[in-house]
Specification:
By secondary structure, the protein is an alpha+beta fold. About 25% of the residues lie in helices and about 25% in strands. It contains one helix and two strands, in the order E-E-H. It has a two-stranded antiparallel ribbon. Strand 1 and strand 2 form a beta hairpin. The longest helix has 18 residues, at about 45-65. The radius of gyration is 13 Å and the shape is elongated. The model is unreliable at about 1-5 (pLDDT under 50).
Length: about 70
């Protein structure tokens, strides 16, 4: 993931993904990440999106649990 907002991008629409539904969850992430603006939506509609969800879940959880300077 690093500091590049491109790491938050969804899979290209031409990607072949398994059609395994992972659930109705949706997570929207917006803000600054290492000084760069990010805006990403995570869903679990198929295998690719579930894999992306799983890959970034720990990062997002860590960010949310990190105290922010006042």
């Amino acid at each position: 993931l690093g500091a590049a907002p491109r790491g938050w991008a969804p899979y290209p629409s031409t990607t072949v993904c398994s059609q395994i539904y992972g659930g109705p969850q949706v997570a929207v992430v917006r803000g600054l990440f290492y000084g760069r603006r990010v805006s990403a939506t995570f869903m679990r509609r198929n295998g690719c999106e579930t894999a992306r969800w799983n890959r970034y879940a720990a990062t997002v959880t860590t960010i949310l649990n990190t105290p922010q300077p006042a």
